[in-house]
Structures are given as C-alpha cells and as structure tokens.
Design brief:
four-stranded mixed β-sheet; Rossmann fold; alpha+beta; single chain; Glutaredoxin
C-alpha cells in the first residue's frame, strides 16, 4: 500500500483554478461598473428631477424672507448674477451663499463667479460691457438682458457699528461689521428689473437745496438718487413750483432748502398733499432762525419746528452730532429696532409731532420716528458760534429728530387711494453722499422711501446679523497655543508612527 504522504503533488487538485480566478475578477468588475452606474443615475435624478434637499446648516443660516421667495417665483426673464469679487473679501462667502439660495429657489437665476484678481481679462471685459470703472470691484451685477441691469456694491451690503467715542479718544480703532444687507438689496434689484417703470421722484431746486446730481461728500445727493434707482424710481429735478407739483410725481423731495419757500410754493405743496401726495422734507441749519411758509405748512400737518438744535452728549462724537438708537413705533423704524441699528445725524434740528389733542379731529396722525437717548436736550441760545442750553426754555429727555405724518387712512397701515404721507427729518446732511454710508443711515433712507411709496413688503427684509466669535489670548497663552499646534501635535503624530514602525519591525 502506498503511503499517501509520498503521493506526487501533481495528483492534488489545485486550490484555486485559473477559470474561477478570471470568473471572480469579471464578476467584481461587473459589480463595480453597476455600482458606478447606479451612483451616476441617482445623482442625475437628484440634479434634474428631484427638488428635495436637506440643509445641514439651516439652524445657523436664516431662510429667505417671504418677499424674496415671492419675488423669485414671479420672475419671467432669465437673470444672470455676476459676482465680481475678490474671494478673500469678508463678504464673499455671504454673497456666494445667499445667491446660491436664490438660484436653488428659482431656475431663472444663474450665478457666475468672477475673481477679478486671478481672471483680470474676463473681469475687464465685464467692466467694459457694463460701463464700470477700471478700478471697480467687489460688486454683484444682475443682468436681465436687453440692456437692463442693476449693480449692488459691497459698500452698500454691510451695516457697521463702531465705538465712535472710543475712537475719538484713541482707546479703540475698531469698526465692526454687524449685519449683512445683501438680501434686501438683491431682492430690490430683482424687483426693479421685473417692474415696469413709471414711479418718479421730483427734487425741488432753486432754494439752495442739496444737489441730486452732485458727488460732493458733504452736500451732494447722487448716492441717494442711486438708492432710488435701485427701487426702480426715476429721479427728476424741477424748479417752477409756482406752476404746481409736476403731473406723475410719485414722491416730492424737498432736500434742505436754504432760502425760505414762497407762500405760493408752500400752497402748491399743500395742494399736492391734499390730493394724496407723498412728500419728504429734510431741514438745514441755515433756516433754523428763519420761520417761513414751509414751517407753517408742516404745522398744519402736525409737525412743529421749534428754533432749537438737538443734542445728546452721551451719543455724540463731535459734540453736535447724534448717533441715535431710539425709535418710535412705526413701520419705518420697526426693522431698525429689530436689527439694533443706529442712525448718525450730523447736526439735527428738533422736529416735534404735535399731540393729537391739540389738533382738529380730521388732522393727520403724526409719529416720532427717531429720538435722542434719555440724556438728550434741546439747545436754543446761539451766540454766533455755537448753541447752548437755556434753563427754563430748553428741555431734557428724548428729543424727536424725525417725524412721519399720515392723513386719509389708518395710521401705519397700507395706504389706499388719496392717502397723503409726509416725513420730515431734522437733518439734510444725514443723507448726503458721505453720511449716507454711515451706520444705518442708508437703511433709514430706504425705509422712508418704501413707506412713502407704500411699498410695505419691501420693508420686511431687514439686515442679517453677523455673529462674531472672539478669543482674546495673552502673550504667554498665544505662545503656548503656537507650541501645541506647531510642535506637540505634529510631534505626537511622528512619535506614534515611529512606535508603530518599531513594533512591526520587532
């Protein structure tokens, strides 16, 4: 009998036949191809057919407002949003993320990201196409085709806050971005591209008013005109008020007249208001000591203009300006209150709403919009150089700086036909080109325009707060942190790797 241990190895069956090896490999290949095909089909369906998506950061990022959703749903034309931005900008991720939400909400919105630093050639071509300056950058262009487009500059997208008193004292030099206004501006641009033109604002000239065509930082109103253009409001200038307010005027702007208006001119404004007109008046210091027909007209509409300057030393940078953060209860100021915004008045006059018990039953309803803080006071004595407080004549407390007046409807609600609206602001420099960019001045201007033109829904989009997390470290703590991050962590990984290598060698 032969010993099985001595049998030739050739008689034993192979442990893994070649045919089976090729079969297993082929099956694995087919499985991988099938898996890839399934993944491709699922992604295709998700991208083209399914609208479901899960937002992992929805708890951290506010949703689009109902007004924005309605505006996007109502788009009938294709709109391209060209983001001409430096990706290193602090605002870039906010702009990019918000426009991504717009494009997901509406298939008619497409987004093009252009880095003007890396792709200078394309950026130059875009600037040329839209008539932008060579040094223009960090803006968004909404192009609806047919030569219709709107631009939103980065300087308009932020609300800043600063410790102005600390800066003046040299203790603090920090200006913080506290809110992002992109949604309100982007939605307004899209709405402006969708609306038919026809809304006109007429600026009165001929009395030393602020010039709407001037780029002067202290007196020009050109940026204010651009704000109106964003809201699809055409701006025009007229001087002959004796012939009445022009037909088709949706908003009459009397911006800081230096010379008093004539009685017949004030009568023309009164007639326009009686027809349901909308008027915005800003006041200059030059007329503080000169009462005229305009002051008499405003008093008929429940607004009293005493010959007093407002002052609030607790909220002032230069002594005569006011950083106001107290607001009345009104649709114009509700978004400012919610956002905690501040309005920087340059040298405001006192503007007082006349109490209802001192007016006839059919008189307009007046509301104070902006007030000083509780430490505010009026200044009435002027020695030729500065104003001062007079005991017994001036008063202390919250002093009103702007007033809204409405007649013909329920105050604060949507205006119907024939409802007249008036806003009086005690500082014409508040909305000049330079101060317009300060704190919440631009927001206040936009809210005033929206209310006067009865665009209540446009006032629902407030700025988004920007959360800031700060870690203050001392010098030794910073050195310790650098040692841990640059030495201990990489060194620990190397030591661990060496120990694994040594164990395997052993």
């Amino acid at each position: 009998m032969s010993d099985p241990m001595t049998e030739p190895s050739s008689v034993l069956p192979p442990s893994y036949e070649p045919g089976r090896r090729w079969s297993a490999g082929f099956n694995s290949l087919i499985g991988v191809v099938a898996l890839l095909a399934i993944l491709v089909m699922v992604n295709y369906l998700a991208a083209t057919r399914l609208q479901w998506r899960y937002d992992w950061v929805s708890a951290q990022r506010p949703q689009l407002s109902p007004l924005t959703v309605a505006t996007l749903s109502g788009l009938t034309n294709e709109v391209k949003a060209i983001v001409l931005f430096d990706p290193s900008s602090d605002l870039y991720r906010h702009v990019k993320g918000l426009l991504r939400e717009y494009s997901l909400q509406s298939p008619r919105i497409s987004v093009q990201l252009v880095d003007y630093v890396r792709d200078a050639t394309l950026a130059t071509a875009i600037k040329t196409r839209y008539g932008l300056g060579a040094n223009t950058g960090d803006l968004v262009i909404f192009d609806a085709g047919g030569g219709r487009f709107r631009t939103v500059d980065d300087s308009e997208m932020s609300t800043y806050d600063a410790d102005v008193k600390g800066m003046m004292a040299g203790k603090n030099q920090e200006i913080r971005r506290v809110a992002f206004r992109g949604e309100a501006l982007f939605t307004a641009a899209l709405a402006g591209l969708s609306e038919a033109s026809g809304t006109r604002a007429y600026f009165l000239r001929g009395h030393g008013e602020n010039d709407p065509s001037s780029d002067d930082e202290r007196n020009g109103y050109s940026r204010w005109v651009r704000l109106l253009a964003e809201k699809n409001v055409e701006s025009r200038v007229f001087t002959n008020l004796l012939a009445g307010v022009p037909e088709g005027c949706s908003l009459l702007v009397v911006a800081g007249p230096v010379q008093p208006l004539l009685a017949s001119e004030a009568a023309a404004i009164s007639k326009y208001l009686d027809r349901g007109g909308r008027v915005l008046v800003t006041l200059s210091l030059e007329t503080l000591r000169r009462q005229g027909p305009l002051e008499g007209l405003l008093e008929e509409w429940g607004v009293f203009l005493p010959s007093q300057l407002a002052n609030d030393e607790k909220a002032s940078v230069r002594g005569f300006d006011i950083v106001a953060s107290s607001y009345g209860s009104h649709p114009v100021t509700s978004p400012l209150t919610r956002a905690g915004a501040k309005v920087h008045f340059q040298a405001p006059r006192v503007v007082v709403p006349i109490p209802a018990n001192r007016l006839p039953a059919d008189a307009p309803k007046t509301t104070a919009l902006v007030l000083t803080g509780p430490e505010g006071r009026t200044l009435s004595d002027f020695d030729g150089r500065e104003f001062s407080y007079v005991e017994g004549k001036d008063r202390r407390g919250e002093i009103p700086l702007a007033v809204a007046s409405e007649k013909g409807g329920v105050s604060g609600l949507s205006a119907g036909r024939g409802t007249a609206r008036l806003i009086v602001v005690g500082d014409s420099a508040l909305w000049a080109n330079g101060p317009l960019q300060s704190l919440g001045n631009r927001d206040f201007a936009a809210l005033c325009v929206n209310w006067l033109l009865d665009r209540q829904q446009s006032m629902a989009i407030g700025p988004r707060s920007i959360s800031e997390y700060r870690l203050n470290l001392t010098g030794p703590q910073l050195r310790l942190l650098n040692g841990v991050l640059l030495g201990a962590l990489p060194g620990g990984v190397l030591i661990l790797g060496f120990m694994v290598w040594a164990r395997r060698r052993g």
